[in-house]
Amino acid sequence: MPQGTPSTVPDDGLTTRQRRNRALVVVHTGEMKGKSTAAFGMALRAWNQGWPIGVFQFVKSAKWRVGEETALRALGDVHAQSGAGGPVSWHKMGAGWSWTRRQGTDTDHAADALEGWQQIKRDLAAETYRFYVLDEFTYPMDWGWVDVDDVVATLRDRPGQQHVVITGRRAAPALVEAADLVVQMTKVKHPMDAGQKGQRGIEW
Amino acid sequence: MPQGTPSTVPDDGLTTRQRRNRALVVVHTGEMKGKSTAAFGMALRAWNQGWPIGVFQFVKSAKWRVGEETALRALGDVHAQSGAGGPVSWHKMGAGWSWTRRQGTDTDHAADALEGWQQIKRDLAAETYRFYVLDEFTYPMDWGWVDVDDVVATLRDRPGQQHVVITGRRAAPALVEAADLVVQMTKVKHPMDAGQKGQRGIEW
Asked: pTM of the full predicted structure?
């Protein structure tokens, strides 16, 4: 929340304005719900700024993110029709696998995930979007499919004003170190502990 | 995330289907960003289900939630025009104050907040919405403006299938106890610690 007063003022040679407009790398990690959900909530603010939004979804199942995808695509349509907000592009990388259930061979999925990351690198180099959601992107890094050092270097050297939000458990220490903002979602109480099943409109 | 297998099956006499469709009280608390953002991300899923969404915003400043409000209102307009998704109502309670900066007298703000809560009670009784965001609603409870026991009893006895998400720091223990799902957002790293200023498109 905008409290206005930073706890320290760095000796980085930047003006307040430059510091205000610095593009961020954000990581949402931890064991609990809300990591991706908060990333898509951030996308609403980006949309309202008219920023081009690119979502790269690194897990896929029939239900996964269908609500967020439909709503954000609808906002992209609003932009296309009325000029309000910004355009939205939604990409599914490595179709058919998820961190809970992998189908097909690991080799295929690794290649899909790596191709997804190569696309992101191309988009970052071209400044295609202003706001990126790399949803569940920690997993292909955790599994060794995508090289963490390559991700960190690419993010560090990206041009222009591109905000990047990465979600998922087990964020690599080098990624956490490189990020500007890291939020950990921790569990206080979860309804599945009390036998609640996942449900429509809440989990997807 | 929908893992499918609850860790325990409760002896509550409910079928799996009944348990799947149980309306939830969700609390997003903790010191870190993402509490409200994740609630608005959840609203995208609710919208995609066609559920009527009611947002009750218990803090207000010129910038506050303007991105989320504009985007969710745009989704409400999509519903009105095409029938896709659900309708969205956005209510601002206790205008002119926030947890960082109160203007006017506490007496006025307490009355505004209490009237806001009375409106929510009427809407819950009438089943006006299927998905509620009570944004920053922990603060009027924390300040004694709204009675926590009344909130807990009202939520416990609410009719039908109404999901309620409450955000804010310092959630009352009785509210945490009454909630089905409680997520705590904790800080790992925050750019304001390094002198970063709040910025357009990220904080609002």
From this structure: 0.82
